[in-house]
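Attaching the record inline, Q. Sequence:
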Amino acid sequence: MRTGRVEAFSDGVLAIIITIMVLELRVPEGHHLSDLFRTAGVGLLTYLLTFIYVGIYWNNHHHLFHLVQRVSGGVLWANLGLLFALSLFPFTTAWVDDSRFERTPVVIYGLNLLCAAVAHLVLLKVITRREGPESLLRRAIGKDLKGKISPAVYLAGMVSALTIDRDGKIGVWVALAWYVAAAIIWIVPDPRIGRAVEEYGTPD
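Structure, as predicted:
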């Protein structure tokens, strides 16, 4: 099976995720800038962070399938696993927003990020196993240090929120700092797949 339908379906799901998130933003009750910050300030911050994460996954997914020739049933299910984790972003983001960064929602948000990262690693593993050890994708991703570091970063954030202080206020902000740091790591475009496409071309 060619990759076109998988890419189109995944693009549609990610577009719906972003649409749902933006619809969760509250419209200010007044007409002043202070009304915007008071009504939607927290929502805008959480929306921005999650939007960046969705953009990162879309970018990586797009580049990943440049080097995939055909997909199998295993690849389809692994891709659905990733989309399932990403589809929970609107829910966990809204909970963080509504709670005003309470500890439990922030930890669950981190768990959602962790699940998405693990699902992405599983997708890569399934694809590279199918493509073979000498495939363009295998050569392009190399050791995939960023992919392996990210789950540890999310775990560090969750542990920080749970253990740093009793009421969780400081720990929550440390956790959010970890989540932002992981996004910064990934927001810089990864040149490996681009170089592989330029050097070897895309699979037939």
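The chain has a mean pLDDT of 84. Residues 33-64 form the longest helix (32 residues).

More tomorrow.
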